[in-house]
Amino acid sequence: MLRGGRGVPLRRPVAAFLAAVAVVAGVAVGLVTANLGSPGLSAAPSVPRVAGPSPQPGSSSSTSPGGPPPSRAPGTSPTASPTPTPQPTPTTVPAPLTGRLVAPEVARRHPIAVMIDDLGAARPQSGFNAASVVFQAPAEGGIPRYMLVFQDRVPKSVGPVRSSRYYYIAWAAQWRAMYVHVGGSPQAMQTLAAQGQGQLVYNADEFRWGGQYLWRITERIPPHNVYSDGVRLRQLAKRVGAKDTVIQTAWKFRADKPLAQRPVGGRLEMGYPQNHIRYDYDRKTNTYLRSVTGERRQIDAADGKRVAPKNVIVMLVRFGPLNDGHYAQKHRLEATVVGSGPAWIATNGRTIKGTWRKASLTGPLRFYDSKGRPVKLTVGQSFVQVLPMGSIVTVKDGKVPTQQPKPAPHVTPRPAFVARPI
């Protein structure tokens, strides 16, 4: 006979029941211990949540689209959904030549300067709208020439490419740009042979690289038929050692003025013996629509769009005959590129008189207002018009519209209340 506490005997059925409970409890404890401690076993996987609308008032919070939620073991708490990994915010930086916000790797692209023809047979030229900065200056015979500097945009087509001149090399030297050309004056060619491996620029002559990175098209007659494109020019930059790197920004930029603060109208005009240039300010786009002799609207043949920079800078420079032994035949020029001189800076619809300064061949070309403060340009493309001293520059700024006060809303007067005797 079994006995309980204090010697009280237990009946066999009760004893058997208590023994069975003890066995079941032991098995349960063993299972839990094995489930938590055995290396080959793990806890049951959590049940993923089903996304759906929030419960409406009066509805059951356990209801989800598509039927009831999957069941889980009694006594277990729901597992929270994992927190999604935050995606990094895209980083942008100002492009050094335009101030446009671009990816850091774009801001490090090595500048590429390309000499462009300006004879009538070369028009319409290609590549203007992709350039960050465009220079136009006298060459010879009263015919100017362009230098397009590409940095944050890759042009579809560039050309016609023409020969080099020393003063263009000096302007490209502030960025140590890859300098693309087809031959050049003796002065320019000597400079490129001595300092064209990165000292001033990286020399990229069609005489050396033609056929692979530059080519001649059949639609135009020589010498107005040498072309390239941005992809091949970027490849050529690597070949000549013009590696991408951090570029120091020489110019300051600011955003477009609000439309209400922009003037209506405005124009700049200047010229060369063989090309008269006109810019008409466009209030809506905050750009200067460009026209040249023979073309009321200058169009970029690469994209079919109007040439319209955000900034126009006119700088006066001393030019004179280049004493290279060929002036009687070629009438080549030389220019004072280091020093300072008068300048007009048109940006955000307003033109100011100031100065340009360049302290050395590789030093930056900078622009200052009448009080000697650095000028802030509008974010975007800049055209630099280089003219001989004594050139006539016509500037006519528009006017900001006067804000008219809005008329007060018309209110019908209520009839006067008259008290009447009761």
Derived structural class? alpha+beta
> Approximately how much beta-strand content do the residues carry?
25-35%
Number of beta strands: 24
Low-confidence stretches: 1-74, 416-422
CATH topology of the domain at 252-399: YerB-like fold
Radius of gyration equals: 39 Å
Largest sheet: 10 strands, mixed
Q: How many helical elements?
A: 7
- Gross morphology is globular
- Give the CA-CA distance, first to last residue: 112 Å
CATH architecture of the domain at 252-399: 3-Layer(bba) Sandwich
Mean pLDDT: 82
Approximate helicity band: 10-25%
Instruction: Supply the CATH class of the domain at 252-399.
Output: Alpha Beta
The CATH superfamily of the domain at 252-399 turns out to be YerB-like
Q: What spatial order of strands do you see in the largest sheet? A: 9-8-5-7-6-23-16-19-20-21
